[in-house]
């Protein structure tokens, strides 16, 4: 009789927990996600913080979360027990057990493998009672966007030096010295205006000295990136690995133009509408271009020949074309630019014979070895 009573009590308790769990379990779960950064560079890491809270008076013995994210946001192995990768997305599971009125905070580290704009779309949350009899699932939107900025091609990966000139180069400068760039002092000859006297040097030497000035440069570089695949109609975008390589090369070229004291602009015929930047002369002005390149899609609808027809070479001193091939239209554009005293340089992984007679730098094809999955 006692055994029957015990079994009856156990049955009543289990039935009660099933009824209570079925009615209130999901209502007692609160879940949130946040990241410490929303803008990072390729290869950098960010932290994602998951908070799950049990606000009810009964325990939640088993809760599973499955976060949906881009496969290019790789979770570190020690911060994620398993990571299932799909075609474009990965699903990162988490398991929690919460006493009444308690919450759990979990921090995961993520490595950003590739430039782009990626998002954490939603989380599927599943709660199960202690016996696994009742299981409830619901989906919660996350809506967190992470912008991964492209990085310049590293010196180790560069097939050629971007700083050493190849062959003879023309140094462009203004005819007159720049009065704002003081390089030193020289003895006063009597022909210099008195407002050019270098008073500090004069005091130390005991006789009049005047400032000497440097020449300022007027280099304006235009970097054109061709996203069109050769001899494919309708117009099609280049291979994704070539595109990523060209973006890295273009960023490096723009950075070098700015570091050398000049200015640069960028334009390409791809993406959803053409990607064109303003003139960039400082590191701060480079950020808007990096944001545009992060958002650049792997699509191309404009032929590069039509794109070149709209380019006026007279506004620049140098024009660099990053392309996977060189054709008659590009050679005609180079001739047009040369006629007005402008240089055109090709950066390409194509055949060097195609650019015979032009300033030409061959860029070897390189491929990214992206790790699809967990970061180490």
Number of domains: 3
Number of strands: 18
> Could you give the distance between the termini?
60 Å
The ordered string of helix (H) and strand (E) elements is HEEEEEEEEEEEHEEHEEHHEHEE
Arrangement of strands in the largest sheet: 2-10-9-4-7-6
Q: Sheet bearing the most strands, described?
A: 6 strands, mixed
> Would you identify the regions where 5 or more consecutive residues have pLDDT less than 50?
156-169
- Secondary structure category: alpha/beta
CATH topology of the largest domain: Rossmann fold
Please tell me the CATH architecture of the largest domain by its name: 3-Layer(aba) Sandwich
Q: What percentage of amino acids are in beta strands?
A: 25-35%
Structural shape: elongated
Per DSSP, the total helix count is 6
In round numbers, the mean pLDDT is: 78
Which CATH first-tier class of the largest domain would you pick?
Alpha Beta
Which helices and strands, and how do they pair?
Layout: H1 2-24, E1 29-35, E2 39-41, E3 45-54, E4 60-70, E5 73-75, E6 84-85, E7 89-98, E8 102-112, E9 116-128, E10 135-149, E11 182-187, H2 199-205, E12 209-213, E13 220-225, H3 240-259, E14 263-268, E15 275-276, H4 283-295, H5 304-309, E16 318-323, H6 328-339, E17 343-348, E18 359-362
Parallel strand pairs: 2-10, 13-14, 13-16, 16-17, 17-18
Antiparallel strand pairs: 1-3, 3-8, 4-7, 4-9, 5-8, 6-7, 9-10, 11-12, 14-15
Explain how this protein is built.
The protein has 376 residues and is α/β, with parallel strands linked by helices. The protein has 3 domains: 125 residues, ntegrin, alpha v. Chain A, domain 4 (Immunoglobulin-like), CATH 2.60.40.1530; 32 residues, no CATH class; 143 residues, Rossmann fold (3-Layer(aba) Sandwich), CATH 3.40.50. The chain has 6 helices and 18 strands. It has a 6-stranded mixed sheet. β13, α3 and β14 form a beta-alpha-beta unit. The radius of gyration is 31 Å and the shape is elongated. About 4% of the residues have low confidence.
């Amino acid at each position: 009789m006692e055994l029957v009573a015990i079994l009856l009590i156990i049955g009543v308790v289990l039935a009660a927990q099933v009824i209570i769990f079925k009615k209130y379990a999901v209502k007692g779960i609160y879940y949130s996600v946040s990241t410490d950064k929303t803008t990072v560079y390729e290869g950098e890491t960010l932290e994602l913080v998951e908070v799950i809270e049990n606000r009810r008076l009964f325990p939640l013995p088993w809760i599973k979360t499955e976060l949906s994210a881009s496969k290019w946001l790789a979770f570190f192995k020690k911060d994620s027990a398993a990571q299932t990768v799909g075609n474009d997305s990965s699903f990162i599971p988490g398991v929690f057990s919460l006493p009444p009125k308690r919450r759990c905070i979990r921090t995961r580290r993520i490595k950003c493998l590739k430039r782009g704009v990626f998002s954490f779309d939603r989380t599927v949350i599943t709660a199960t009672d202690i016996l696994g009899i009742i299981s409830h699932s619901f989906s919660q939107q996350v809506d967190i966007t992470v912008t991964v900025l492209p990085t310049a091609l590293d010196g180790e990966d560069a097939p050629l030096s971007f700083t050493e000139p190849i062959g003879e180069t023309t140094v462009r400068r203004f005819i007159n010295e720049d009065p704002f760039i003081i390089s030193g002092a020289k003895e006063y000859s009597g022909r210099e205006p008195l407002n050019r006297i270098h008073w500090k040097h004069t005091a130390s030497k005991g006789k009049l000295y005047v400032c000497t000035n440097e020449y300022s440069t007027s280099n304006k570089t235009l970097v054109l990136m061709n996203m069109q695949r050769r001899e494919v109609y309708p117009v099609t975008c280049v291979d994704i690995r070539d595109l990523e390589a060209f973006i890295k090369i273009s960023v490096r070229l723009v950075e070098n133009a700015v570091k050398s004291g000049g200015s640069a602009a960028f334009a390409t015929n791809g993406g959803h509408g053409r990607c064109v930047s303003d003139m960039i002369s400082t590191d701060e002005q480079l950020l808007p271009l990096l944001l545009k390149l992060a958002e650049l899609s792997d699509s191309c609808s404009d032929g590069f020949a039509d794109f070149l027809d709209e380019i006026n070479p007279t506004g620049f001193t140098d024009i660099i074309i990053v392309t996977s091939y060189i054709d008659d239209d590009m050679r005609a554009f180079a001739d047009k630019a040369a006629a007005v005293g402008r240089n055109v340089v090709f950066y390409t992984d194509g055949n060097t014979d195609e650019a015979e007679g032009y300033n030409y730098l061959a860029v070897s094809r390189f491929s990214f070895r992206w790790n699809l999955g967990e970061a180490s």
